[in-house]
Design goal:
The chain has helices at residues 16-23, 36-48, 54-65, 68-80, 82-109, 116-158, 165-180, 185-217, 233-246, 253-257, 266-292, 306-339, 351-374, 378-406, 417-450; strands at residues 4-5, 11-12. It is mainly alpha-helical. Strand 1 (4-5) and strand 2 form a beta hairpin. Belongs to the amino acid/polyamine transporter 2 family.
Length: 464
C-alpha cells in the first residue's frame, strides 16, 4: 500500500478508502500526523470492524434478508397462482444467489470496495459513485420505512386499534433507532438468532393456524394453480415486485463483507442464505395461500384470525425491528464513513464519533418514518422499493459488474457463453422489474387513493 510522505520524513499509511480516493484523482487535502491516541483509536477501530466469519455473515444476511419479504408472499401467490408463484419464487431466488456471487467476486477482486457505491465508481466513475450512493441510501431508508409501517400494523393489531396509527409509527421508529445504534455488524449478529427464531415461529404459527381454520370450516379453499381471473397487468407486477423484494440481500453484501476476516468464505454464506430463503418463501407463500385462498391478506400474519394473528405479531416483533434496524445501520455506516473518511471519528469510538453517529441514525430513522406515513400501504411500499432500487442492486447492476469488472475475454467465447447468458437474463429481469414495476406501483397507488381504499398520509386510521 502506498504511503503519504510528510515534510518531517514521517509517514502514515492511509486507509483503503483514502487510497481509493487518491487513485481516482480526488483532492484529499493536507494530511496531518496522527497522535498516539488517534493511532490507538484507529487500531482498535480496525480490529472492532474486522470480526465477521462466514457463519456470522450468514446470520447478518439472514437478519437483513428474511423479514418483510416472507410476509408478502401468500398475497403474491394469490395473484399469480400457485404455479407461477412457485416458479418465480424459486427462479428469482436462484438468480439472486448468482448475482450475490458476482457481488462477492467484485469484492475479492477489488478489496477497497466497502459499499455498493464504490462499485458504481469502478464502473462509471464519479457519476456512478454518486448515482449508486443515492440509490443505496434511498433503498435502505425505504426498508427502514417498511419496517416502521409493519411495526405500526403489528401494534395496531395487538391493541385492537388502541391508539392513533401515527403514535404507533413513532414508537416503531424509536425502537428501530435504538436497535440501529450498535455500529458493528458483528454485534448485530448476536441478535440474529433471536431474529431468525422470531420469523420462523411467526410463520409457523400462521401456517398451522390457517390450516386448522380451513379444516374447521369444512370446505375446500378457493386457491388456484393459475393467476386470479381479475388480475390485470398492475396486480401481476405488484405481486412480482413483492417477490423481488424478498431477495434484496445483495445490496448490503459489500458492507458486510468489508468486516469479514476471510472474505473468500462468502460463497458458503450466500448459498446457505439463498437456500433457506427459497425454502421459507416458497413454503410460506404456497401453504398459507392454499389454506386461506384468494382472501389471503398482506402482511400474511393478518390472515391467521384475530387471536392467532395477535400471537403471531407478538412473536414477530423482534424480526420486524431487528431486521429493520440493520438497514439503518448500513446506511449510517456508509454516510458516516464518507463524511469522516480521513478521520478517526469514522470508527465511532470517540465522543465526537458517537455524537455524530447517533445524530445520523436519528435523521435516517425520521426519514424512514415519514416515508411510512406518506405511503401507508404495505404491498405498494414494497413494490416501489423493489422496482426503483432492488431491481438494480439484485439484478441488473451485478450483471453489468460481470461484463465490466469480472469478465475475461470475449463474452461469446466458449468458456464465457453460459455466464454471458446468465448475466443477460439477470439484466433483462432487472430492467423489466424497473420499468413495469414502477409503472404498476404508481398506477396502483393512484387507483387505491381514487377509490378510497387506503387512508390518507399522516392519518390515525390503520394502514392498508
Amino acid at each position: 500500500m502506498s504511503e503519504i510522505k510528510k515534510e518531517d520524513n514521517q509517514s502514515i499509511t492511509p486507509s483503503p478508502a483514502l487510497s481509493d480516493q487518491i487513485s481516482n484523482g480526488e483532492t484529499v487535502g493536507q494530511v496531518r500526523e496522527l497522535t498516539d491516541v488517534e493511532k490507538a483509536r484507529m487500531q482498535d477501530g480496525e480490529a472492532h470492524f474486522n470480526r465477521l466469519g462466514w457463519k456470522r455473515l450468514t446470520v447478518v444476511l439472514i437478519v437483513e434478508a428474511i423479514a418483510l419479504g416472507s410476509l408478502g408472499m401468500p398475497a403474491a401467490f394469490a395473484t399469480l397462482g400457485m404455479v407461477a408463484g412457485t416458479i418465480l419464487c424459486v427462479g428469482l431466488g436462484l438468480l439472486a444467489i448468482y448475482s450475490s456471487f458476482v457481488v462477492g467476486q467484485v469484492k475479492l477482486k477489488y478489496p477497497h470496495v466497502q459499499h455498493y457505491a464504490d462499485a458504481g465508481r469502478l464502473m462509471m466513475g464519479r457519476f456512478g459513485y454518486e448515482l449508486f450512493s443515492a440509490m443505496f441510501v434511498l433503498q435502505l431508508v425505504f426498508l427502514v420505512g417498511s419496517h416502521t409501517l409493519t411495526g405500526s400494523i403489528a401494534f395496531l393489531n395487538l391493541s385492537n386499534d388502541g391508539a392513533c396509527s401515527i403514535v404507533f409509527g413513532v414508537v416503531s421508529a424509536i425502537i428501530l433507532l435504538l436497535l440501529a445504534l450498535p455500529p458493528s455488524f458483528a454485534e448485530v449478529a448476536i441478535l440474529g438468532y433471536i431474529d431468525f427464531a422470531s420469523i420462523i415461529l411467526a410463520i409457523g404459527i400462521t401456517v398451522i393456524a390457517t390450516g386448522v381454520q380451513r379444516n374447521e370450516i369444512g370446505f375446500a379453499s378457493d386457491w388456484s394453480a393459475w393467476p386470479a381471473k381479475d388480475a390485470g397487468f398492475v396486480d401481476a407486477f405488484i405481486a412480482v415486485t413483492n417477490i423481488v423484494f424478498a431477495y434484496s440481500f445483495a445490496i448490503c453484501q459489500f458492507s458486510f463483507m468489508d468486516e469479514m476476516h476471510t472474505p473468500k468464505d462468502f460463497v458458503k454464506s450466500i448459498w446457505v442464505l439463498g437456500i433457506i430463503e427459497i425454502v421459507i418463501y416458497t413454503l410460506t407463500g404456497a401453504l398459507i395461500y392454499s389454506f386461506v385462498g384468494q382472501g389471503v391478506q398482506s402482511p400474511a400474519l393478518l390472515s391467521a384470525g384475530s387471536l392467532v394473528s395477535k400471537v403471531a405479531f407478538g412473536i414477530a416483533l423482534p424480526v420486524i425491528f431487528i431486521s429493520g434496524s440493520i438497514n439503518g445501520t448500513v446506511a449510517g455506516r456508509y454516510i458516516h464513513g464518507r463524511i469522516y473518511r480521513d478521520s478517526v471519528t469514522r470508527y465511532i469510538n470517540t465522543p465526537k464519533g458517537w455524537i455524530s453517529w447517533i445524530a445520523l441514525i436519528s435523521v435516517l430513522t425520521f426519514i424512514g418514518w415519514v416515508l411510512a406515513e406518506a405511503i401507508p400501504f404495505f404491498s405498494d411500499l414494497l413494490a416501489i422499493s423493489s422496482s426503483l432500487f432492488i431491481s438494480g442492486f439484485t439484478f441488473y447492476f451485478p450483471a453489468m459488474m460481470w461484463f465490466m469488472l469480472i469478465r475475461q475475454g470475449s463474452p461469446f467465447s466458449k468458456e464465457n457463453l453460459v455466464w454471458t447468458t446468465l448475466n443477460v437474463i439477470c439484466f433483462v429481469v432487472g430492467i423489466v422489474v424497473l420499468v413495469g414495476g414502477t409503472y404498476a406501483s404508481i398506477e396502483d397507488i393512484i387507483h387505491r387513493y381514487a377509490i378510497g381504499e387506503v387512508r390518507g398520509a399522516f392519518s390515525c386510521s390503520a394502514p392498508a
